Amino acid sequence: MDYKVERYLKSDINNAKITVEEILDSIKNIVSENTFFNTKLILNELIINSILHGNQKDKSKQVFINLLIDKSCIIIEVADEGLGICYKKKAYGDYDFCESGRGLMLVEGLSDKFEVCGNRVKCVQYIK
C-alpha cells in the first residue's frame, strides 16, 4: 500500500486548518489511531510554523506539504518560502521560557527521524 498527498496552500491559518482536516480525513482508515494522532500533531505544528515563522503570515507565499505512506513508514515533508532556520536540538528544560521552538521539539519527539534543512522539515514515523 502506497498513499501520497501533495498540497500547496497559501499562508493563511484558516486554509491550513481546512487542508489538514482534508489530509487527515483521507488517511484515517489507513493508519492506526496512535499514528493518526501523532501525524495530526506533526502536520499542525509544521504547517503553523511555516505560516507564522517561515512565511511571516505573508498570504502571497505558499506552504508545500508532501505526505507519503507505505507499508513501513509515514514521511511528512513541509516546506515554506521563508529564509529557513538553523535548528539545534536543546534539552527539554531549555525551552521552558522560550517564545518559540517547542513545536519543533514536539515534532522531533514524535518522529523516528527528523531533519531540518533550511526552509524544509522532513519527518519519518515508522509504522509498527
TrEMBL record:
Keywords of the record: ATP-binding, Nucleotide-binding
RNA-binding recorded as keyword: no
Presence of keyword DNA-binding: no
Origin superkingdom: Bacteria
Any one GO molecular-function label of the UniProt entry: ATP binding
Domain (Histidine kinase/HSP90-like ATPase): residue spans on this chain: 30-124
Name of the protein in its database record: ATP-binding protein
Source organism of this protein record: Sedimentibacter hydroxybenzoicus DSM 7310
